Amino acid sequence: MAKVLMKGNEAIAESGIRAGGLCYFCYPITPQSEVAEYLSRRMPEVGGAFLQGESEVAVSNMLYGAAGAGVRCWTTSSSPGISLMMEALSYIAAAELPCVIVNIVRAGPGLGGILPSQGDYRQAVKGGGHGDYRCLVYAPSSVQEAVDLMPLAFDRADRYRNPVLIIGDGMIGQMMEPVEFREQEFPSLPEKNWATDGCKGRKPNVVNSLYLNPVEEEQLNRKLGEKYARMERDEVMFEEFNTGKPYRALFVAYGTTARICKTAIKKLAEEGIDVALLRPITLFPFPSERLNELAEPAEFLLSVEMSMGQMLEDIRLATCCRKPVHFYGRQGGLVPSPEEVADEVKRLLGSAKGDR
Amino acid sequence: MVSTRRHEGDWVHADRLLASLRRVVVFCGGFGTGKTEVAVNFALLLARDGRRVRLADLDIVNLYFRSREVRRYLRDMGIEVLVPEERLVNADMPVILPEVRGALEHPDGNLVLDLGGDPSGARVMASLAGLVPPEETATWLVVNSRRPESESADAVLRMLASIESASGLRITGLVVNSHLADETTPAIIEEGVRLAAAVHGAGGPGIIFVAMERRLAGEIDAGALGYPVIFLQREMLKPWETGGHPARADEH
Predict the structure, then answer these.
(1) Which tens digits make up the pLDDT trace of A187-222?
(2) pLDDT in tens, A276-331
(3) CATH for A241-353 (3.10.150.10, 3.40.50.920, 3.40.50.720, 3.55.30.10)
(4) Inter-chain CB proximity A170 and B64 less than 8 Å
(5) Element (H or E) spanning A73, and its range?
(6) Domain A4-234: which CATH class?
(7) How many structural domains comprise chain B?
(8) Could you tell me if B93 lies within 8 Å of chain A, comparing CB atoms?
């Protein structure tokens, strides 16, 4: 199929359908409403289900129900809407159900604004909902990557029986880029013999997250913990940029800011300053091991975010605080420019030498 | 600040294009066809040609990459930009300025209207019905053959009909802006010209001009396309893209 030009939100919608996500619930919110608009048109054409709920609370519980019935289901929203889904997300994780949730992040906290942000890093990576659960979290940095990650997200949700988040800042949802939809092959999945899809001739399946027996609840927590450990072992994804030759500093950035760092790296190289980039594609699991290796030759690390430095703790943990970890970011919907980022590197290199 | 000399490198067959020009020029089209890039460049071209130009951002559908993002640059270039007041410029609501009504009635200079995409974006014109004088208005549909909904001449004609129905305007010409962002090739532009010619052949309006990025000027014989050509300087840049003009982020 020839490449076409698509907006991130439309492309995510189309890729979700192609990945078999034929059951979609939503409540519109800027800047991701184009996903819902697109699917309201497309789902009837492909025999899927499109349902706009009365709120994000309703939508997330529809997701809980549909996932329990064993169908590939998903939703998309933006920051405040995702917050409203957190209770159900915890239930879905506890009941070990697969689903995909896309968060096209906008400026916060609170109602915030409609411009792009990465301020939901902690919510996505550290929990958001209550209890000992985690989500596998993917962070695309182009429309093509968002398209490619959708089938993977559905596959991993089914394989781990766990919710999978895709988080893109507003830019990923709103910008237009060339894309192609490529077939992806995955090994076959285990049968969903736990689904509440009719029990004629067998014992009913039950989807529940209430445990009155603390021993059973502890067993669930430990089982989930093992699952998240398996994700940390098997699911780490990242991209390296400019790491093939000596470098003085290492950027750590995901999504849109990683692309800004790449432009900054090219600008700095013209001035004879070599800087490399590690771009986490999975935010959980975080690419800690590789980051620790790449930090070794660098004088310092610089996290570039459209938030107040929410990723800093993970970077410091990964590198055991062996290197200085600095932060540069813009907030509120503003996006750092490559020039600002390059200037910050030069300022830090200058101050490291003591001439500033 | 504004040169009144015609820059020959900006366009091909400028006189033919200017013959199609009317006092009011409306750029409409499917979502993501590049209306804003074309409208902004067209306004800049008219300003460089020594004309008085107003540009109104009537995009009430899109949220990012609207012409209001480059309003300061356009103002520096001598273009009067009609966008919502600063405190509402990023508001998630459809603001239609009273000044646009005034500009439609204003007799001198050119008014360029940049509509939002699809029929839903064009619907804003219905609220200005009666103010747009048909004989003084050119309404041009921007076509990009690389958008999924521009897959055939029939699909473009359907889009044209639904935009006409939503806006109350009659579309008088086609603008070919066939592109795949950084991956645009001469073949994609030629494909767009063929598509638009097929639309015209099937009863649609004719091609007014072909738009292409300036970097492609050396790769394609623009004169041989047989239509006026405008070379675009990309202004609606992504944050990591270089070129254009600085300090866009701080325009918010």
Answers:
(1) 999 999 999 999 999 999 999 999 999 999 999 999
(2) 999 999 999 999 999 999 999 999 999 999 999 999 999 999 999 999 999 999 99
(3) 3.40.50.920
(4) yes
(5) strand A73-77
(6) alpha beta
(7) 1
(8) no
